[in-house]
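During the reporting period the student researcher (J.K.) took over the structure-prediction task from the postdoctoral fellow and processed the backlog of single-chain submissions. One of the processed entries is reproduced below for the supervisory committee.
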Amino acid sequence: MKVTRFTEAAPYAAPNHYDMRSLRLQGFDPAGPQAFWTGLSHFLPGGGAGPDASPLEKVYVMVAGELTVKVGDTEVVLGPMDSCFIPGGETREVKNNANSVATMLVVMPYPPKK
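J.K. obtained the following structure tokens:
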């Protein structure tokens, strides 16, 4: 078992994200998960990500607040405990259109080894 205390979670920078702060909860550690990693993202009002695509699939789980997620022509607002799966290669955009902070768990596989 590997425990990461919230107070010890390390921040990381996510490409093409703005007005967002993120913490790595699990992963990218020899003693942690070998197939995926988990992050926690806090989007400030007006904050977001994209539009862009990744070859990797991802799962978003809303913890608090609301985020608008757009994939192709489909747009949905996720609230607390809502989740969505985004296949690899899909262009997605995430935006916090509210006046409160939105918090989301992100689960993704590791990028392919070079």
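The committee noted the following: The two ends are 28 Å apart (CA to CA).
J.K. will present the remaining backlog at the next meeting.
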